[in-house]
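call fold(seq) -> C-alpha cells
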Amino acid sequence: MTTSFEVGFARADITVWEPDMAMLGWGMFYNRTEGVAEPLYARAMVVRDQSGGRFAYVCADLLLMSQAVRFGVMDTLIRDYPELELDEARVMLTATHTHSAPAGYSHYFWINIGGPGFSQRVFDVVVRGIVEAIVQADGARQPGRLSLQTGDVPPSAGIAFNRSWFAYNRNNDVAPVDYDHRAEAVDATMKVLRFDPDPDAHAPESGNGQGGMVSWFPLHGTCVHSENRKLHPDHKGLACGAFESRADAFGIFAQEATGDVSPNHRLDKDRGLVVGRFADDYENAAWVADVEADHAHRIFSGDRGLPIDGTLAAAIRYVDFAAAPIDPRFTAHPGAPATTRAARLGVSMALGTAEGPGPLYPMPWITQLCNGVVRAADVVRGFRGVRSHDPQWPMLELGRGLDGRLMGVFGMRASMSLPVDPIFRYVQSLIKEGALDSTPWVPHIVPVQIVCIGPLAIAAVPFEPSTVAGRRLRQTLLEELAPAGIEAVVINPYANAYAGYLTTFEEYQVQHYEAGYTIFGPWQLAAARTALASLARDLTHGGSDDLGPRPHRIPDEHIIRQAYIKPWPAYGSPT
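ret:
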C-alpha cells in the first residue's frame, strides 16, 4: 500500500448548556434547554503529509461555528500545543448545523440574542472539547491511504428537499421543478473521504488500526423542531454512530451547500409545521441518520475512487464583506456597478420557513408589499443609471449596531425601549449597561479558507450557501485549481465564523427567507467567488500571503455584560 499521509480521528464531548437558556437555531424564546436527549460531540480528523505538515478538521454538533470559538481554539493550540505547528490556515472548524444545541458561545450580539446572552461556561466547554478532539486525533495518527469516493443519494431516498424551490427556479442555469419534484432540486452527490490504515506500516503506538471517513452531504439539521427542550445532535450527529456500527470505522458527517435543503416535506396540520416522515421528531432524526449512514457505508465500501496522493497546501484570508472586491465576471449583469454593503436583515427573514415559521409567515403579503415598494423605486432609479438591483426592505441594520434602524425607519435605541418581549427587555438592560454601541452585531470581517489534500480541495465559507450558490462556488474553484491538479472540490459551510446565508443573484431577487438573511446584498455570492478565486490563485501560484484585514474582537467588558442574568440557577449539569 502506497501511503502519502498519516491520519487520525477522535471525538470529545461538548454536551453543555445554561438552564432555561434557549437553544440556538430556531430563534424561539420557548425553545429552552431542560436536559439531554443525545450527547453532543466535536469530531476531529488530523492529516499529516510526508513533509510533516498537518491539517486539523473539526465538525462539531453545533448550529454554527462562531468566530469567538475559533479565536479561543487557535489561542489555545498556539499557546499550549506549539509542537503541532497548526497555524490559522491549517485548522478548519465546522458545525453539523443541528438546531438543538446550546446558545451562548458567540461574542456577537445578534447570534446570542436568541438565548438570549453569552455563556462563559458553554464557550469554555466548546473550546476545550474542540482542542481535546484535535490533540487526541493527532495522537491517533497512523499511516495509510486516502481516497475520495462519491455516490448519489437519490430523490427516492426521501430525506432531502429544496424548501425554496420557487427561488431555485429563478436561476438561469437550472431545470425548473414544481412542488412535487423539489427533491430533484438538490445536489444529490455525497462525497466520502475514506482513510484505510496500512496494516504493514509501523504505526504510532497510539494508533488503533481503525479506518475512518468524512462524509459531505447537504441537509439542514432540522429534523428536531422548536418544541424540543433537550439537546440533540439531529441526524448528522446520529449518523456518525449509525455508520460506525456498520463499518467499524470512525465517521464524521459534515454539511455541504445546504442553505435551501431540508429533511422536512409534509405538513403536520396539528403542529402547523412541515415535518419529516414520522410524527415524532426524534424518530425522524434517527431514520434520516440511518438513510445517510446506509448511503455513506455503500459509498465507503465501494470502489476506491480518486486516490488522494501528494501533499497538503492551505491558505486562509479574511475579507470585509461589507466592502468586498468583486470581479466583474461573477456579476449577473456585466458592466453594472456591483458592491456589497454593511450587514442588514431583510423583512423577508421574518417569514421564516415552513419548518420554522416566523412571525410574518401567515402574512407573506406584508413582505411582498414592502419589497415591492423597494423594487419599484429601484427600477425608477434605473432610468437615471443608478439601479442597485437590491429589492430588500431593511428590517434590521446589523452592521451599524445601535446606530442602525429598525424597518428602515425607527431608531434602534427608541425601538428597543418597548417592553413587548423578554428579549427586548434583555436588550434594554444591555443598553443601560453600555454593552452595546455602534459595533456591528454580526461579523463583517470573516475568513474564507482552502485546504488542498492532494487532488481534493476543501473550501470553508462562513455562510449557508444555497444549492446553486454552492454549485457556482465549486465551479469557480475547479476552474482556478484544475491547472494545479485539483480534481474535486467540497464547499464546507458553517466554517470558522458565521454571517448568514448566501444566495445567488437570481434567488436574492425573490426575497424569501434565505435572501432576507443574505446580509451583504445581492452581490454577496459574487464577492465570495472573487475572494475564493483570488485565494486559490495565491495558493497555487505563490501569490500574496496577506491574511487580509484582521477580524474585530469584541471588548471583554462587553462580552461579560452580555451574559444572560436570570433568576434560575447559574448552571446546570452537563449530562
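The two ends are 43 Å apart (CA to CA).
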